[in-house]
Design brief:
Layout: E1 19-22, E2 27-30, E3 33-34, H1 35-41, H2 44-53, H3 59-71, H4 77-85, H5 92-105, H6 115-140, H7 154-163, H8 169-182, H9 189-199, H10 204-215, H11 223-234, H12 240-249, H13 269-283, H14 286-303, H15 310-320, H16 327-348
Antiparallel strand pairs: 1-2, 2-3
Helix pairs in contact: 1-8, 2-16, 3-6, 4-5, 4-6, 5-6, 5-10, 6-7, 6-16, 7-8, 8-13, 8-15, 8-16, 9-10, 9-16, 10-16, 11-15, 13-15
The protein binds acetyl coenzyme *A.
């Protein structure tokens, strides 16, 4: 009997030097650094540099990346036109997927798969995706585009371009933490998708577009959006018990809980929960906090399944003022750093990813009356 590993569960398919997930010690390292330490001390720009290059940047290296990012934030007219072609009802994940595709189709260097060129594309996507996401949320609200401000860092500017107001530092700090925590997580479904596409030596943009498609599903990145839908359904903390009775009786998955790798809690949750707590205080959102705590306590005590990163980040993005539909594109803006680091790592020691399958269809059969004429 062939030993089939459904969902590739437990299968180690390659080496990676980018991040290490250790569910036993509940730790996540980016290039050796605990993610909590990076979230506490670094701007997201420095973490992007780390993921791509293997080391934290020197002051000059960081200044160079920051200057690049600030000078490439403006959306070109063809990207704006492509976004405007899409209906306002289009899911923002479809919008960002399309906009990235247009960016790739317009890049004359798209098919140059050298590391130098792919690093340049990675930096370009890092700078442009926030502008795509911010513009899409604004157009859905009937608001015009907000031009970027090159006196603001990545997180402050992202919030500025989305809301047209300079954010409070508490909010920008929580946003920076969320970007760092979402940036990278080894061979998750979207990153593996990017690596599969890169392994065919297709261009980096195609790999990122494929990864966005994989991230969209509610079993992966789409869960942060789904968490808010659950909160809306439940309404108040007092309704958690009856709501959970019904949800579990009908075998519903509770979004924001569970993980393929972490079975005793997601290493990123305490850091994001602390950031959420600062937002709860800032926005005086005690009711939401009570709902959050009650659902977590009740579900964990019934099922022993713990929250994943999407559980605290959904309500955090909600408090910041993002539309629920925009949450997963925020994940894209962060994870594009990890995806592109993996695409370059795959290219550096490539082997076409092509697993096998065990056939379990009907036995060989033939077309009636068919006589070979050769
Ligand atoms: N709610 C209810 N039951 C759950 C949940 C959940 N969130 N997660 C797991 N279970 C149950 C399953 O029903 C299953 O029970 P059974 O054995 O009685 O059939 C058991 O736990 C194992 O679950 P699987 O789905 O087989 O485990 P897997 O490792 O494949 O799943 C996954 C991981 C897909 C993340 C799952 O926990 C889930 O669907 N969670 C909800 C979606 C979610 O939050 N995704 C975000 C992932 S993290 C991220 O992208 C940042």
């Amino acid at each position: 009997m062939t030993d089939i590993k459904k969902g590739l569960a437990g299968v180690v398919v390659d080496y990676t030097a980018i991040s290490k997930v250790n569910p036993d010690t509940n730790s996540l390292l980016y290039r050796g650094y605990p993610v909590q330490e990076l979230a506490a001390t670094q701007p997201f720009e420095a973490v992007a540099y780390l993921l791509w290059n293997g080391e934290l940047p020197t002051d000059e290296q960081l200044a160079e990346l920051v200057a690049y990012e600030r000078s490439h934030r403006t959306l070109d007219p063809e990207i704006i036109a492509a976004i405007d072609l899409l209906p306002l009802e289009a899911h923002p994940m479809d919008v960002v997927r399309t906009a990235v595709s247009v960016l790739g189709a317009s890049d004359p260097a798209a098919y140059d798969n050298s590391r130098e060129s792919d690093l340049e594309k990675s930096r370009l996507l890092f700078a442009k995706i926030p502008a795509m996401v911010a513009y899409d949320q604004r157009r859905r609200r009937g608001q015009g585009i907000v031009e970027p401000r090159d006196d603001l860092d990545y997180s402050h500017n992202f919030l500025w371009m989305t809301f047209g107001e300079e954010p409070d530092s508490v909010v920008a700090r929580a946003f920076n933490v969320s970007m760092i925590l979402y940036a990278e997580h080894s061979f998750n479904a979207s990153t593996f998708t990017a690596r599969v596409i890169a392994s065919t030596t297709a261009d980096l943009y195609s790999a990122v577009v494929g990864a966005i498609g994989a991230l969209k599903g509610p079993l992966h990145g789409g869960a942060n959006e789904a968490v808010m839908h659950i909160f809306d359904e439940i309404g108040t903390a007092s309704n958690v018990g009856p709501w959970l009775d019904e949800a579990l009786a009908s075998k519903r998955k509770i979004m924001g809980f569970g993980h393929r790798v972490y079975k005793h809690g997601d290493s990123r949750v305490p850091t994001m929960k602390a950031a959420l707590d600062t937002l709860v205080e800032h926005y005086d959102a005690q009711e939401l906090a009570e709902l959050y705590d009650t659902l977590e306590a009740d579900f964990v005590s019934r099922k022993g399944i713990y929250p994943n990163l999407d559980y605290p980040s959904g309500p955090a993005y909600h408090l910041m003022g993002f539309d629920t539909l925009t949450f997963t594109p925020l994940f894209v803006a962060a994870r594009v750093t990890g995806w592109t680091a993996h695409i370059m790592e795959q290219a550096a020691s490539n082997a076409l990813i092509r697993p096998l399958s065990e056939y379990n269809g009907v036995d060989e059969r033939h077309i009636e009356g068919y006589v070979p004429d050769f």
